[in-house]
Amino acid sequence: MGVSVATGAYGISFGAISLAGGLDFWQTMALSLLMFTGGSQFGLIGVVAGGGAPLAGAATAIMLGARNALYSLSLAELLRVRGWRRLLTAQLVIDESTAMSLGRDSERAARLGFYSTGIGVFVLWNLGTAIGLLGASWLAEPRVLGLDAAAPAAFLALLAPRLRGREAWAVALAAAMVALIAVPFVPVGFPVLIAALVGVVAGLLPVRPSTSAPERTESAEEESR
Amino acid sequence: MTPLWIGILVGAAGCYVLKLAGLSVPKSVLERPRLLRIAGLLPVVLLSALVAVQTFSIGSELMIDARAAGLAVAGIAVWRRWPFLVVVALAAITTALVRMWVPGS
Asked: Which of A36, A48, A172, A203 could form a disulfide with B37 if both were Cys (CB 3.0 to 4.6 A apart)?
């Protein structure tokens, strides 16, 4: 329940930021109802608000949504849903519902955690979006209110929990650099897609065992330099 | 249909297919570590790139303005593990205040 309420508050900021980014009421509601995965929704409005092509925004959103495929992959065994139930259940696969199904004592409790969180977040996320939209519609000038800084702050808050370990930091900084270098040379919206290649390349590199002793000495030396 | 609506619907359809795919594909996909690693790294690179681009550029131009101050405050708030809404609100308020002091920033 606490998770759903927190998400509702997060939905309010999504509604407000989306409106400031140039989407109208129903376009924003369509994102919350149909896309229903926060990071991707912010990704799409982020690209479009900067003047990027809507399809570049869609590509960014879809790549950000790739993690949901990992979640549903790991949930498939637990949920064992078929037919129309699978079609409906799929929409509920998000960060929060997955997290709330993990680490439960029984399969029953895990399923209950998944569905109660998934449905609760769906309702409150959409309610929050609508409130944010209605609340922000009377705001005059988004730039005067600093709302153009709200979106990157939201991305930073989404990014922070994923920055575990040196590899994640290195990959994140490399992606930020690549995107900024690309800004003057490619159409708006594409720097972010080019930065995605950093993730692909990093993922293809051989994994270095980060816990081995030689690695640790090496990194200690690097830091002392 | 406007291009924006097409982008919204294409993006929503893509995200839904990804959610559905995991429930539908055979378990053997889990044995492809590189694919899993890339899917795990994508949110990190995309979010990081979005932070950088939306803070330090307008259109095709790089610039440092009041948003950088907003992001710095957001960074402190995130580090202190303050709630999401607080992080976002502090960034907006800081940016607005800097713009009041430094017109045009």
From this structure: A203
**Rg, Å, chain A Cα set:** 20
Question: Which residue of B lies nearest to A9 if distances are taken between CA atoms?
Answer: B85
Whether residues B39 and B73 share a domain: the answer is: no
- For residue B18, the chain A residues in CB contact (below 8 A) are 62, 65-66, 68-69, 72
Same domain, B73 and B105: yes
Q: CB of B41 within 8 Å of any CB in chain A?
A: yes
Read off the pLDDT of residues B46-90 as tens digits, 9 standing for 90 and up.
889 989 998 999 888 999 999 999 999 999 999 999 988 899 899
CA distance to partner chain B, nearest, from residue A138 (Å): 17
Q: How many CA atoms lie within 13 A of A68 on its CB side?
A: 29
A143·B99 Cβ contact <8 A? yes
Q: Mind telling me how many Å the CA of B103 is from chain A's nearest CA?
A: 10
Residues B58 and B47 in one domain: yes
Closest residue on chain A to B94 (Cα): A146
Calculate the average pLDDT of chain A: 85
Do residue B70 and residue B57 come from a single domain? no
> Which chain B residues are Cβ-neighbours of A27 within 8 angstroms?
4-5, 8
Residues B19 and B43 in one domain: no
Complex confidence, ipTM: 0.87
The structure's pTM equals 0.77
In this structure, are residues A60 and A42 in contact, taking their beta carbons and an 8 Å threshold? no
First-to-last alpha carbon distance for chain B, in angstroms, is 37
- My answer on whether B75 and B96 are in the same domain is yes
Structural domain including B100 reads 64-105
* B58 and B76 part of one domain: no
Rounded CA-CA distance A22/A15 in Å is 11
Predicted confidence (pLDDT) per residue in A143-195, tens digit: 677 878 888 898 898 899 889 889 999 999 999 999 999 999 988 888 988 99
- Tell me which H or E stretch contains B84: helix B84-101
Q: How many domains does chain B have?
A: 3
pLDDT in tens, A24-54: 999 999 999 999 998 899 999 989 988 899 9
d(CA A31, CA B65): 30
Distance from CA of A11 to the nearest CA of B (A): 9
